Amino acid sequence: MDKTALLFWSRLIQGAAAVVLALSAVLMLAPPLGETFFHLVYFQQPASPVPVPAEIQGYLRFANGIIGAVMAGWMMAVIVLARGPFRAGERFAWNAIAWPLLGWYVIDTTFSIAHGVWGNVLLNTGTALMFGVPLLASRRHLG
After folding, report:
1. How many helices (H) and strands (E) does the chain have?
2. pLDDT tens, position by position, 6-47
3. Is the Cβ–Cβ distance between 5 and 141 less than 8 Å?
4. Radius of gyration of the chain (CA)
5. What is d(CA 59, CA 93) in angstroms, rounded to the nearest whole number?
6. What is the pTM of this model?
7. Which of residues 2 and 102 earns the better pLDDT score?
């Protein structure tokens, strides 16, 4: 088990989780900025292509905030795993990070493809690579 390599890969995983946490915070704390980001992902423009009534706008901000909260909670768990048992070489920690990420990627990306939201497919793939590279590279260093 190479502790130096695991420390390096742990830090990359924590960095990836911090990026997702930052997006989560935007969704919860700065809803208009989060909406602009998602409009760019979904519609390739910074605003909705159709007018959105105030009642629906409020619901969308609430739903995006909940999405941000779920993502934040998940990334906090990833950071705790990466800082402790993953860095110590515990295989269960690798599994606890990798398998949920793979499940999310397959389900979310399939759903996005089915709905033709190619921007989200790209966003998911970039996110998966941020985590996937250090996860795949670290696997051989585990106990």
Report:
1. 5, 0
2. 999 999 999 999 999 999 999 999 999 999 988 898 888 888
3. yes
4. 17
5. 36
6. 0.90
7. 102
